[in-house]
Each structure stands twice: as structure tokens, then as C-alpha cells.
Amino acid sequence: MEEDSHLANLYKSVSSLKGILNYETLAEVIPLSLYESFGFERTFLFLPQPEGLKYATSYLTSPAEGEARLRRPTEKLPPSLKDLTIKVGRNPQLKQAFREKKTFRQINPQKTFTKEKDLQNLAKTLDLGSAIFIPLVLADEDLGLILVEEGKGEELEEDILAILDTFGDSAALALENAHLYGETLKTSENYRTILEQMGDGVLIIEPNHQISFYNKEAQKLLGFSEEELLGKEEHKTLGIIHLKGVRLCGKQECLITKMPKSGTFSGEVFMETSDKGRIPAFLHARTIYNVKGEVVGTVLIFRDVTRELELERTRREFVAIASHELRTPLTGVKGFLDMVLEGDAGKINPQVRTYLEDAYESTERMVRLVEDLLSVSRVERGRIEFKLQNTDLLAVASEVVTDLSEAAERKGLKLEIVPLRPSQVQADPDKLREILINLVGNAIKFTDEGEVTISFQTEKGKLITSVKDTGIGIAGKDQPHIFKRFYTVETTLARERHGTGLGLYISKQLVEGMGGKIWLESELGKGSTFSFSLPVVKKEK
Q1: What is the average per-residue pLDDT within 147-167?
Q2: Which residues on adjacent β-strands are paired with residue 210?
Q3: What is the pTM of this model?
């Protein structure tokens, strides 16, 4: 019956720890539960600090007050108790107890502790007659120590130690769970603070489509109140429209929160404000999944790009005007230089000819730059017209090879086509020619020996054209940026070959404008292959 009583007390004490996730509250409940379940008059809890185990809380009977109650370090206790530090490693018996996770009893600890100086000081400070020490260990991590006083001249039954072992295991687990919960809350609060302070607007949408979080910038940009955002269904509150006019969120549904797994959306959109106005914004949205593959929410991060668009518009207008104004005088300069070199102004000596040829080449580069700038301006302002028609890609490529064969021969390069029939694509022949001139011209420019080859292959309704060279190649770090406007590779070999950084950008815009894609494969020192795809002309049935 005595054993049944102890088990009942154990169940009662362990049950009192369940569900407590606040670390400080749990530190108060542990000694209280031992008092209430087993009747221990003095119970002390020591918790880890950087310097060692320090007194945290206790539950003890005060003769002066005539009742038992919780005591905290802030209350009147022996000063030496608050200052005392227990280092497990320098107390052999305690070290063994933690290693074996085993509760032990010590009779008359003030005298019997000889090597355990910390415990001896503790026993003297508390005037202990007989005590039980319960190590709190979980996964070899020391989480605390419980000290229970048996009373002077009083010893509890031996089997109580095994019962307290079990309680110690439960208390250690509860402390670890509370600690982890506290750290999680702290981390969560830190993340929340970061999101609140972000200069971009942030919205978090739950799987049930309700908005669960917004930061101040989001509220400022959209103009909604807390009541209009928090807990509201996203499609009833948010209005997001793609630049092409497709509504991504609003009215009946929100396509952004229905993206496929690992899907993201990034791009410029219009976001509707509370007053039904619209602001241009750059939006990045991602659906978040947990380890089980379940949707936990969708994060929307956006910023107002009104100023950036205004600056970009001003830049485009300047480039268009400046390029247009430069083209006429440069064409005139080039023409006059050509006339002088042809002898129209009389005979010129070799030294003057050298100067004039250098001037002519520099002017030609300037003319090409101006033409490229004008092409970029037309692309960005949407003023390029594509006259799509059935086009013989092989015929266009053959013309380009003929035009550039002299440049290849000057460098001793082999320029050839690997033919493919049929080679009909849906494209604008003039734009196709410009693309091939850019790609083949670059291949010749950046190849000093070997060959440049144009080849074709069909794949899933597309005709893929590849321009392969044995040139200097492109480093991996440069490849993701190679189709960007004005991007040039920063190497000595590349700098020696003067380029505007616009040809590949223009080629990409033209290919995509005709419904295709462009990409590259390259290895530094071994050459590059630029490929683009265009729709194959469908055979008539």
C-alpha cells in the first residue's frame, strides 16, 4: 500500500508539470509539486547559469509564518545561498550522479561531504540534516538540480529514491520543452520585429486565405486599416494586376496563393489601394511548405517603384533623343573619313592614313553604339514591330555567313553551317538576321583560333539554332548576367575586344519578341555555345 501511495504521489507531481511552457513558471511549480505530492517541507531548485548551477526557487515551511510557501531569490534568504555556485565537475559524487542520472541520499551532509566543497557549503548554509539530491539530465545535458531536505534525524523509505528518479526525468523533460518553447517565441518575436522594420511591404496569408500579418510599410502603401486587413480573405481585400492586365488577386480568387509547390512569383504589378487607386510595385510572392509538404502560408513582399519607373522613363527618353541626335553627325563624319581614305581629297601619306584609319574605326564603333542604343530604346518603349512570317532560317544564316566570312578569314577561322531541312520558322527575317549577326559576330570576335559553327535541331515544335565557337569562353560568375543591358565580361582578353554590352541584350529581346528563348553554355578557355529557339512552321494538313 505504501508503494501504491508513492506511485499516486508521483503521478500527481508529474501531472502538475504537464502543459507548462513558461520556463519561470515551471521553475516555481517543480518545488511546489514535490511539497504538495510528497509533503517535503524544504525543496530547492538550482538551474544552470554560465558559471554553474545557481539557486532559482524553493518551497519551504516558515516557522515564523506558520505555513509553507514559495520562495524566490529576491526574497530574504541567506545571502550565501544566492551567491553560492555549484559546479558539477568539481563535486565528484554529484558528477557521478549526473553521469548515471541517479538520485542519491546524503546523511548529515555538513560532515559527510568531504570532497564536494560546493555541496558542503550548501549543506551548511541551509543547515541540512539529511538530504536527497535529484539530478535533472536530458540527453547528457545538465538541466538543473533538485535538493529535498528529509529533516534532521528523519529518513524516508529507500524506494522513494527510485520514485524521485522518475520525477527528475519528467522535470528535466519539462524544463527542456519550456526552454525550447521560450527560444522559439523569442526567435519568432525577433523575426516579427525584423518584418515590422523592413522597408518593403510584407503580407502573410494563411492556408485558409486569411491575412494573418502585415507590417507598417504594407499598411502605408496600401492605405488599409487593421480592420480591413487582419483576418480578411486576401481576394476580398487585395487587388493585384499584372502589367499585361491579368488580375492576379481580387474579385473571386487569388492566383498568387495557388502557385504550385516550390513556385514563386516575381515581377512588376499594379497594386490597388484602399481608395481604389493603383501603385506600380515590384512583387515577390512565395508559398511556404513544411517538412510534410503541407502549405503553411504565402508570403508577399512588395515595394513601390513609382520613382524608379519615372527615372527609367527619363533615362529612356534621354537615350532615345541623344542617340537620334548623334546618329546624323556621326554618319557624316564616317562618310567624310571614308571619302578621304578613298583618295577623294587627294593623295595622303602613310602616317596620315594610319591616323585616319584609326579615326574611321573609332567612328564606326560609335555609330554601332548609337545604333544599338536606338535599338534598345525602341525595344524598351515597345516600338519594335515584328513582321512574323514563314522564314527559311537556313537561308538567313547562309546570308550572315557570307557577310561575315571575310572577318573570319582575317583571323584564320573556319566558319561553317551544319544544314538542316526543313528549316522554316515563324519569325521576322530582318530581326532574325540581326540576332545571327550579333551571335556570329561575337563568336568571331572572341575566338582567336579554331572555328565557329552554326547548327540546327528540332525539339518539341521548336527549331533550335546554336552558334558554337572555340574562343575564350565565359566564366560561370558572368553567365547569369551576360544578357543584361551594358554587361561586359571583366577580363583582359574580353576588354581587348571592344564591345558595347548591348548586342546580347538586344538579341534576347528580339528572340523573346518572336516567341522564343535564348541561352548559353560556356566553359572558360574552351569556348561558348549560344542557342535560341523559335516556333517551327506547322505543316498544313
Answers
A1: 73
A2: 233
A3: 0.47
